[in-house]
Amino acid sequence: MSTERVVLVTGGNRGIGRAIAERFVAAGYRTAVTARSGEGPEGTLTVRADVTDAASLDAAFSEVERELGAVEIVVANAGITKDTLLLRMTEDDFDSVVATNLGGTFRVVKRASKGMLRAKWGRVILISSVVGLYGSAGQINYSSSKAALVGFARSLTRELGGRGITANVVAPGFIETDMTAELPEETQAEYKRTIPAGRFGAADDVAGAVVWLASDDAAYVSGAVIPVDGGLGMGH
């Protein structure tokens, strides 16, 4: 496996994105992360970017290209939630989540694809969620944005699959992060009862799947949805 390749992880300063960046650094990849604030893990280049702003992303990519080289692997991880039931959900609650989670992915992948096409090699890895296909009350905006990533990856595979570029989706389930830690204990226990594995996952479980998809071992895998959810959704 060539580990000199350049990786960019969006939202790589905390949670799952940070764990993904750490795993790439440990494997020897030249790794950059985007962050609106804060810093990526040790060994990464942190660049400022807002995925809803194409100009800021272009500047961030240019900085990575100057410092590390052309981005060969992009992990679209940055995302937000604004959970509430449909009848209480405002236009902004819906539009802002879709603009970040889906629109942000579009902007990031479009910019990254230019270098990949020149190199005739690339890995596009989109971080979705079990709720994208499983559904979740109170998350119509979020689950819609995450389900859309499946169509995105599959359409991209049909466009660029002949150019040495793969596009895949990783769908995490309940992962131990700052967000899940804030849930009341009885809620956590209730969730765990629905997960065949009987526990929440670790961010590193997701990172392992992402780094595998980026590797030469996964060169013939494209348009796939890889569930990392302890059996909760099983890809659906």
Computed over alpha carbons, the radius of gyration is 17 Å
Main beta-sheet strand count, sense and barrel state: 7 strands, parallel
Mean pLDDT: 95
The helix/strand order is EHEEHEHEHHEEHHEHE
> SS-based structural class?
alpha/beta
Domain count: 1
* CATH C-level category: Alpha Beta
Number of helices in the DSSP assignment: 8
The side-by-side strand order for the widest beta sheet comes to 3-2-1-4-5-6-9
How far apart are the first and last residues' alpha carbons, in Å? 31 Å
CATH superfamily: NAD(P)-binding Rossmann-like Domain
Q: Could you list the spans in which at least 5 consecutive residues all have pLDDT below 50?
A: none
Shape: globular
* CATH domain topology: Rossmann fold
Number of strands: 9
InterPro entries: KR_dom, NAD(P)-bd_dom_sf, SDR, SDR_fam
Protein name: 3-oxoacyl-ACP reductase FabG
Family: Belongs to the short-chain dehydrogenases/reductases (SDR) family.
Domain Ketoreductase: 5-178
